[in-house]
Design goal:
single chain; about 400 residues; alpha/beta; Aspartate Aminotransferase, domain 1; Aspartate Aminotransferase, domain 2; 2 domains; 4-stranded antiparallel beta sheet; 12 helices; about 15% strand; binds pyridoxal-5'-phosphate
Length: about 400
Amino acid sequence: MEKFSITLIIRSIENLLGKGPHSLHEPSMGKKEIQYVSDTIKKNFVSTKGIYVQKFEKKIKNYTKAKYAISTINGTKAIFIALKALGVKQNEEVLVPALTFVGTVNAISYLGAEPHFVDSNIKDFGIDCNKLENYLKKIVIFKKNKSINKKTGKIIRAIIPVHVFGHPCDIENIIKLAKKFRLKVVEDAAECLGSFYKNKHLGTFGDAGCLSFNGNKIITTGGGGAVLSKNKKLNDKIKHLISTAKIDHEWEYIHDDIGYNLRLPSLNAALGLAQISKINNFLSLKRKLFFKYNRILNKIEGIKLFKENKYSKSNYWLQTLILDNKNIPSKNKLIKASHNKNFYMRPAWKLISDLSPYKKKQRMNLEGAREIYKRAINLPSSQSLISKIK
Ligand SMILES: Cc1ncc(COP(=O)(O)O)c(C=O)c1O
């Protein structure tokens, strides 16, 4: 074992990847992407009506083995519309990890609902299920088969388990807990195309599951997302709400609800169709990158690379370095040193519960999430990096 030093870590990574720039994550594009996107332009079908949307949705559905898959304009709006269709209303509370991307929490706020922050654990970066159960036992009373927060008097309607950096959270136990407390479950699997728990794709455990195809994800549509579900009524409702809620008529414009216009354009779906055809290759490159990083970093004491847990198959979307407690003071210096060398390390998100729009919202003790923030650093993780490694 070699002694922990910032210089050693930076030198080891630079030796592995070669000289920068290396961003945190960049998309991998090829001829197929150009061909499919050009095709939408040539056919003059660039908007939401084009055939590529249906083709892309079918691929997502088949790949994830979800019963239904609907594409949306982005992952944030996928979460928003899933919560809306599942009946989350203004002033109701939604349990959500404080350690997530801000979009997860904003999706709750768009409904006028209240995020209620819950803790995560460093074992899988997801919701700490045991801790949450003890907390809910203390704060919930049941009234008319609903969970009511004793403190606020508000209904706790739903929970959003987030699968972080591509790694499955403790999803089976979270689903059990949700049943006990009568909560709807919207999985945030935005980062997790290609990740499985006990061979079941993430996003297919809850009432609904959401994916993101933003430019920094394992496959991209430029911007885009999807809602996975297993209930036809729910699926039809989401489909209706993401359009303009227009009912079928040959020529009249009749809308029976307030639609949100969140459909993915065909131009983006064409890009997604080309990208998803490469998912197996992307997954294998990501896994290779994990092993390459692991070989150099496990020689250095006081750090470790995050590895998928039992029963989990991660897409390794973002490689994550975990610092031992004694090395926490080096975190920012390490990140800064990587930027000086033109490769991009990044800390985990600041807890959303600490940000100004959310400072006054309900929360449990968040020490697990704080520990992750202090100890985790994401490394450059693009699948294209493998071709740069000798
Ligand atoms: C955990 C998580 N949730 C939600 C989102 C929102 O997705 P989008 O950027 O497509 O709106 C993202 C990604 O960006 C994410 O990483």
